[in-house]
Amino acid sequence: MDKRKSAYLVYEFLSEQGGLEREIINHANMLKESGYYVKILTCHLNKKILTELPFDGLEIEEISKIKTKFESIKLISCFLGLNTIKRHNPDLFISYSAPMNYLIRNHKSKKINYINHFPHYLYLNNKEKLEWAKGTQGYKRVIALIPTFFIGKWMKKMDKELIKKNNLNFVNSFFTKKRLDNLYNINTIVSYPPLDPRFKPSSKKIKEKFLFTSSRIIPDKKYEWLLESMKHMKNKIPLYLAGSVEENYKEKLIALANKYQIKIKFLGRLNTEEIINYYTNAEVFVFPTPKEDFGLVPVESLACGTPCVVWGDRAGPTEQIIDGINGYHAKPYDLKYFAHKIDLIIDNKFKIKNKAKILGSSKRFSYNEIKKDFLKQVNSLVF
Question: What CA–CA distance (Å, rounded) separates 142 from 34?
Fold first, then answer.
C-alpha cells in the first residue's frame, strides 16, 4: 500500500498555453520530487497542450462525466454536478481558481488555493467584464460571466467564504497580495510562480533583429497599445508575437500594424524549446499589459538573457524588472515613453552590456529557489 502523502492539483481546463499552466506543472513536479503522489484533475483536457507544455511524467485525469470534444459542455456539466470529484480524497488539494474551490468545498482534505488574481467575472465592473469575456478562445469566459448577472451577490459571498475556509492561500506577487488581502480580509503568502529550469539562453541564432512578446494574444493584454507605441520608435524593427490568437483580433492587429507601417509576425503556439530560442534572440521583450498580477513571461525572458520593458505601475512585472539593470519601467501608460525605453535599450547595446545582470536577476525566481519556501509551507500543513 502506498503510504506517500497525496496532493491533487485542480484547475477547470487545460487547453491554453499560459503562465498558469506552467505554474501547475512546476508545482506538480516540486511535490512529486519531494515524495508526494501527485495527480492533476481538470474538467477538460486538450491533448494538444501535452505537446506544447512539459507535462511529461505527470498524471492528468478529466473529471467531467460527459465525454465530448466541446470544452464548454464539459465545463457546464462539471459545475452542474456531473463530475467524479467525490471519488478523489487526497491528503491535499491545491486549487488554482475560484470555481475549483467550489468543486472541492465538501472534501475533508487540506486545501490550498494558489491565487493568481481575483475572479474577474465577479469583481470587475460591467464594461471590464465584457472586455474580459472576449479575451479568450471559445465561450468559457462568457459561460462564467452569465450567472453573475443573476446570482452575482451570492457568488461573491460564496467566493469569500470558500477563500477563508482554505487552510492556506498563496498569491503570485506582493501586488496581488495587497489587492486580495484587502478584498478578502485575509493574510495571504507570496509564492512567486517558479521559473521552468529549462529556460536559459539558446545556442541557436535568428539573424533578423526583432522585438518579442509572448502570452495569450487577447484584447485585455493590450497589444494595440504596443503597436501604437511602436509607431513612435526610432528603431524600426519587426514585432514577433507568440501565442494563440483569434482571427478577428489578429486581423485588428494586422490592420493597426499596416496603418503604422510596422512589420509583425504571428508565431502561433510554440513549444518550450522554440520559445526559448525567440526569447534569447530578441533585442527586447516588450510587455504592454497594464496592472498584471505577475506575468511569468518577463522573467522567462530574463532567464534567456533578454531585457524587458514593462509599465511602471507597481504591478507584478515591476517586481521582476529592476529599472536600468535588467530592463526599464515605462511611465504608465505613456505610449511614447514606452517606445523611448525600447529605443534606449537598442541604442545603448543594453542587452550586451548588462547580460550578466539580466541573467542574474532571474535567479530569485528560479525553480529551486521558489521550491524551498513553497514546500516548507505545504509540508507544515500536511505533516
Answer: 39
Q: How many CB atoms lie within 10 A of CB 36?
A: 22
In what helix (H) or strand (E) does residue 41 lie, and over which residues does it extend? strand 37-42
Q: CA-to-CA distance for 23 and 1, rounded, in angstroms?
A: 30
Q: What is the pLDDT of residue 137?
A: 62
- Of 73-77, 218-222, 325-329, give the range with the top mean pLDDT: 325-329
Paired strand residues for 190: 171
Average pLDDT of the chain?
Answer: 95
For each of the domains in the chain, give its residue range(s) and CATH number, in order of start. Answer: 6-194+367-382 (3.40.50.2000), 211-365 (3.40.50.2000)
158, three cell numbers: 460564496
Determine phi and psi for 41, rounding to 5 degrees.
-110, 135
What percent of the chain has a predicted confidence (pLDDT) above 70?
99
Report CA torsion sign: 198, 318, 230, 268. Answer: positive
Strand, coil or helix: what is 171? Answer: strand
Query: Exposed (0-12), middle (13-18) or buried (19+): which is 94, by Cβ within 10 Å?
Result: buried
The residue whose grid cell reads 514593462 is 310
Per-position DSSP letters for 202-239, written without gaps between them: -S----S--EEEES-B-GGG-HHHHHHHHTT-SS---E
Q: What does each C-alpha distance from 49 to 28, 320, 373 come to in angstroms?
A: 16, 27, 29
131-161 burial by CB neighbour count: b if 16+ within 10 A, else e?
A: ebbebbebbbbebbbeebeeeeeebeebbbe
Give pLDDT, residue 1: 39
- All three cell numbers of 165, joined, read 475556509
Please tell me the distance from the alpha carbon of residue 21 to that of residue 375, in angstroms, as a whole number.
19
**pLDDT tens-digit map of 275-311:** 999 999 999 999 999 999 999 999 999 999 999 999 9
**Alpha carbon distance 46, 373 (integer Å):** 32
Written as nine digits, the cell of 275 is 520559445
What average pLDDT score do residues 159-177 get?
A: 98
